[in-house]
């Protein structure tokens, strides 16, 4: 099963709508709660990142019997130094993002913690792609 | 402790989902930082916060939080109430500070997460 949603940068009122929709789908599919919660939290952080930093983005969620793959692609400023961006506490968020309760430099670390694998690629000035994989059963 | 008892201790005014006031909670977490709230793995807990916007409700939805207490009478918007209702989340307003509310609930036996 595939789900695809577009998101607009800067649209804070809608930030979280995709994660909320995916949460409902995972519940309908009877995905184990602890697994679905990890995916939804990682997805929500990713969605907030796009809203906070990019001009637009697309979230694709691919669910099969073994795993859930999430791909977040955005058009935006990209990430200059991915290693630095992964450090907890590093943030380039605007005051507006901080007012929403984010921008403390925890987002990417939270996404990594809540997925079994995370891959980030970025071209500065063009955009960023974050790919997450979460297995439905514990994976060796 | 039930949410009803909690609301009484903190002079809280229940804004929505009154029908769920008998829900029992064991833990609370105080934060204005939503990324920090998203790290909490426990469920069926109360969030005490001074941050009143739509993302407070969204974050609580993702974290399966039962009840949000807004400190210092923060204004809860209509959109926030409707999103909370959609997710069966109890919203409570309290005139007291985050520190005061946290202290009262701790004293009453509500447990801390970290």
Question: What do you see in this structure?
Answer:
The complex is a heterodimer of chains A (140) and B (114). Chain A is an alpha+beta fold and 140 residues long. Chain A has one domain (2-135): Heat Shock Protein 90 (2-Layer Sandwich), CATH 3.30.565. Chain A is built from 5 helices and 5 strands. Chain A has helices at residues 17-28, 33-53, 82-86, 95-99, 107-113; strands at 2-8, 56-63, 67-75, 117-123, 127-135. A 5-stranded antiparallel β-sheet of chain A has the order 1-2-3-5-4, covered by helices on one side. In chain A, helix 1 (17-28) runs antiparallel to helix 2 and helix 2 runs antiparallel to helix 5 (107-113). Chain A starts with a strand and ends in a 5-residue tail after the last strand. The model of chain A has no long low-confidence stretch (mean pLDDT 94). Chain B has 114 residues and is an alpha/beta fold. Chain B has one domain: HprK N-terminal domain-like (Udp-n-acetylmuramoylalanyl-d-glutamate--2,6- Diaminopimelate Ligase, Chain: A, domain 1), CATH 3.40.1390. In chain B, helix 4 (78-86) links the parallel strand 4 and strand 5. In chain B, helix 3 (54-62) packs parallel to helix 4 (78-86). The mean pLDDT of chain B is 96. Classes of the chains: A alpha+beta (140), B alpha/beta (114). Chain A binds chain B through residues 12-13, 15-16, 19-20, 23, 37, 40-41, 44-45, 48, 99-102, 104, 106-107, 110, 113, and chain B through 32-39, 51, 53-56, 58-59, 61-64, 79.
């Amino acid at each position: 099963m595939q789900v695809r949603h577009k998101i607009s940068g800067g649209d804070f009122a809608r930030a979280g709508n995709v994660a909320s929709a995916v949460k409902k789908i995972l519940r309908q599919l009877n995905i184990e709660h602890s697994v679905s919660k990890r995916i939804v939290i990682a997805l929500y952080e990713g969605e907030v990142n796009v809203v906070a930093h990019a001009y637009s983005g697309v979230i694709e969620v691919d669910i099969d019997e073994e795993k859930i793959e999430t791909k977040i692609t955005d058009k935006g400023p990209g990430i200059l130094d991915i290693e630095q961006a992964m450090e907890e506490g590093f943030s380039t968020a605007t005051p507006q993002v901080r007012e929403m309760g984010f921008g403390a430099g925890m987002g990417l670390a939270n996404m990594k913690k809540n997925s079994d694998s995370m891959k980030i690629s970025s071209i500065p000035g063009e955009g960023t792609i974050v790919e997450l994989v979460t297995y439905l059963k514990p994976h060796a | 402790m039930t949410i009803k008892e909690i609301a009484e201790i903190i002079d809280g005014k229940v804004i929505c989902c009154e029908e769920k006031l008998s829900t029992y909670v064991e833990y609370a977490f105080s934060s204005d930082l939503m990324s920090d709230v998203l790290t909490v793995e426990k469920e069926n807990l109360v969030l005490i916060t001074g941050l009143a916007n739509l993302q407070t409700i969204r974050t609580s939805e993702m974290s399966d939080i039962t009840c949000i207490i807004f400190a210092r009478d923060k204004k809860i918007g209509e959109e926030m109430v409707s999103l909370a209702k959609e997710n069966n989340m109890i919203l409570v307003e309290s005139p007291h500070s985050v520190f005061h509310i946290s202290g009262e609930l701790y004293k009453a036996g509500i447990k801390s997460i970290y």
